[in-house]
Amino acid sequence: MSWHHWLPRVLVERAIRLVWLLPLAMVGLFTLIRLAPVDPVQAYVGARVALVGPEQRDAIAQSWGLNDPVPEQFLRWVTHFIQGDLGDSMLFNAPVVDVIMARWPASISLIGAAFLFSLVIGTSLGLIAAASRGHWPDRAIRAFAVTLAVSPGFWLALILIAVFSVQLGWLPACCSASPGLTMAEVTWGDRLRHLILPAITVSVVGIAPLILHTRARARAFLEGPAARHLKAHGARNLSLLMGPGLRHALGPALTVHLAGAGELIGGSVLAETIFSWPGLGEATVRAAKGADAPLLMGVALATLAVVFLGNMLADICAHLLDPRLRDQAGSRRQKRKSVSRLQSSDFETAREGKS
Prior knowledge:
355 residues; mainly alpha; two-stranded antiparallel ribbon; 15 helices; 79% helix; 1% strand
C-alpha cells in the first residue's frame, strides 16, 4: 500500500493526541514548579542576601509577577507561550528561547551519538546472542544486558572517568572541547574525543532493551518455517540473521529505540552534569538549583516536543518496515468505505420506498 494511504491518517491521529496532551502537560508542569519549595527571589539574590532588603525583595517579586494570583500567572504564561515568548531566564539573563537555541546543538549531538551507538551495539549483540542461543556467547551477552539494565548511569560515568581519563589518560573527562580554545580553534577530532565518554554513558539506557528485544525477534525468525527451510539447505544461523533476519529484527528494534527517546534525554541530563557538557541538561540542573522557573518550563516543553516527535517517527518507521500495519490501515479504510456505501444504499432504498 502506498504511503499516501496511511501517512495522513497517522499524522492526523498524532496531531489530535498533541492537542489534548499539550494543555495537560502545561498545567502539570506549571503546578509542579509552583509547588517546589524554592523561593525564586532568594535563589536570585543568593550570596547578596545581606545587601538586599525586604523592600527590594518585594520589588523583585512584584516585577516578576510572583505576587499575582496563581491562575493569573498561569494565564499570562500561556498567553506569552502562544505568542512565542517563553519569558526570560533569571540565571542567564537572556530570553529562554535564545538559551535553548544556543545549547540545543550540543544536546542534539550528544543524544544523536548515543542513539546511533546504542542502536548499532544493541542490535549487533542481540543478533549474535540469537545466533548462539544456549552457548556461552548468548549467556555472556544476556548477562551483560542485565548488568547494564541495573547499573546506575552516574556509577558507569564515574567508572569510565576513572579508567579512561584518570588511569589511562586516553579521553578527556570534561566539557565539549579543550579549555582555553575558541570554537574556531577546536578540531573535529578534539570534539569527537570529548564526545565519546558522555555518549557511552547516555547510550547505556538504550543498549540493554535493544539486546533483549532484538534477540527475541531474531529467535522468532529462526524458529519460523522460512528459516527452517533455509537451514535444511545448509544455511547457518548467523548468515540468516545477517540477511533476511536483520530486516525482520531491525524494524521493531528501531521502533522501540525511537519510542525510548525520553529515556535518552533523561540520561543526557545526568551525563551533561557529570561531564560539564554545555547542553540543555546542564542548564536544566542549574535552573532547578536556582529556581529559574521560565527556563525550566521552556526546557520541559522543548523536551516534550522532542519526545513527541520521537514517538511519531517510531510509528512512521513501524508502518514503513512492517507491511502488516499498512494492510491493517488499508483494511480499516476499505471497511469504512463499505459501511459508507451500505449506508448510502439503505438511505436511497428508504427514500424510494417513501416516494
